[in-house]
Amino acid sequence: QVQLVESGGGLVQAGGSLRLSCVFPGSISLINTMAWYRQVPGEQRELVAMLNKDESTKYADAVKGRFTISRGNAKNTVYLQMNSLKPEDTAVYYCNVLTIFLRSRWGQGTQVTVSS
């Protein structure tokens, strides 16, 4: 099973920035959507941002105007640029790829902690 490889989490002060990266180690022709989710202990995993095959994007209301999802030149990498971070953005962030066969692949998760 293809495993996504994430990087870029860490500890940052409120107002700071972080960039998360995720590599899909498979053929780019298999990719349908690429997305980032986050999860806080005791709560459900929630969608943060999604990038569709036609390059359209969707964002959670809580991050609109602060986060940007994009693909790398190689097209098998997805980034999440997070600016103006707030303590409530603290969570484990997961990369997700939905293939053209509607199979969902997840990364291992990366911790983002924003201090006040």
Provide structural commentary:
It is a single chain. This protein has 116 residues and is mainly β. The protein is 0% helix and 52% strand. The protein has no helices and 11 strands. Strands 2, 4, 5, 6, 9, 10 and 11 form a 7-stranded mixed beta sheet that branches. Strands 1-3-8-7 form a 4-stranded antiparallel beta sheet, with no helix packed on it. The protein is globular. The mean pLDDT is 95.
Major sheet, described briefly? 7 strands, mixed
Level of helix content? under 10%
Global Rg: 13 Å
Note the total helix count: 0
Distance between the termini: 39 Å
**Low-pLDDT windows of residues:** none
The proportion of residues in beta strands is: over 45%
Question: Can you tell me the overall shape?
Answer: globular
What is the succession of H and E elements?
EEEEEEEEEEE
Q: What's the rounded overall pLDDT mean?
A: 95
Coarse structural class: mainly beta
Strand segment count: 11
Task: Please specify the SSE layout and strand pairing.
Elements: E1 5-7, E2 10-13, E3 18-23, E4 31-39, E5 46-51, E6 57-59, E7 67-71, E8 77-82, E9 91-99, E10 104-106, E11 110-115
Parallel strand pairs: 2-11
Antiparallel strand pairs: 1-3, 3-8, 4-5, 4-9, 5-6, 7-8, 9-10, 9-11
In short:
The chain is an all-beta fold.
